[in-house]
Amino acid sequence: MINLFKLWAIVKQAVRNLSLHKLRFLLTALGLIFGVSSVIAMLAIAEGASAEAQRQIAELGATNVILRSIKPVQETNPSREQNNDSLVFAYGLTNHDFERILKNVPTVVGATPLREFRKNVRHHEHEIEGRVVGANPDLLQITGLTLAQGRFLTDLDLDRASNVAVIGSEVSEKLFPFGDPVGRSVRVGDKHYYVIVGVTKYKAPSGGAGSSMSGQDLNKDVIIPLTTDRARFGEVITGEKQGQLSFEKIELSQITVTVRAMDEVKRTASALESLLEQFHPKKDYSVTVPLELLEKAEATKRIFNLVLGSIAGISLIVGGIGIMNIMLATVSERTREIGIRRALGAKQKDIILQFLVETSVISSTGGLIGVVLGIAAPPLVARFSGIPVIVRPESPILAFVIALVIGLIFGVYPARRAALMDPVEALRTE
Fold first, then answer.
1. 46-65 pLDDT, tens digit each
2. Beta strand 244-249 with 236-241: parallel, antiparallel or unpaired?
């Protein structure tokens, strides 16, 4: 067993030897510094991106199944109702679908319908293009929104088809920059006025959870009762493209179905798919299962971490090669010193230990500096790029240990080469 006092003396000697060539020492450690910092930074970025994706998916609800209306790629059977030289395209989910789901799928414990479309929202001279959302009071819980002011929609608003609205934070800022919007009114479209009863807090826009879910900015929403939406706007939505009016009949844009338990989610999604297929031959709907998206996101995270970790690990290997190169050069320069030490009674294991300690000092110093830079870099990346980052406690520890191990591995060959020198030949070296 190595005497601790002897080991401490070897460490001091190693530090003294390395301090004689400070620039060489720094350049040798540079590879490990960049390697360690890049490992920590890349894992932090990967972890942050994964956590953000999983957060968005989790907000959709692990026990939910989301049905969305989608416009068919090729409309093969539009309604032949003529209106200003344009056709009315009827597609998507219907109120009958909503009733069938509640009646025929026993695992469903609840369902929330909504309809959405874009309209200009105005208050005096201020105007913004917002998203009108006709919904039930359940929408607040499903979207994870919280109120900044006022209240949300109630069952009474729904029963009376009241002209009330809950607006998003951006709508509030644009239309009411200097006052309290609650109790005041906004005009939606050309002629519909709604009294504001609540304002939602800012919520980060989603990037779209899956191919069938579009990204949404809930801060631009104007939420009104679904019954009010039907009464004021009807079922045909009017738009204008390239100077020509277009008419689309969409009864419901989305139905969020809630299931009793997570183990019934996939089976329920299959049952909903089968039910809708009977009444939608044009496949004008999509079925999104947040639970499946969450599982895929977790699998993608593991692959992403592996790939980024491997790329950053290459930097550590390059740093290890640099250590081996410098240590081989050091052995050549100190050949006479090695011969003298052997002649004075030093054993091969003493020479190996001396050079391995020097290698450890280089790799540990480079690793510590790399850890500091690796922890400092992710917040800067998040600040200037907007990319979320998460530095896990184990990442710096893992990166430092890998750097130390790589340094030792690449230092073994130079140390053995020094120890196996013939003392007589070494003393002859000038």
1. 788 777 777 766 666 778 88
2. antiparallel
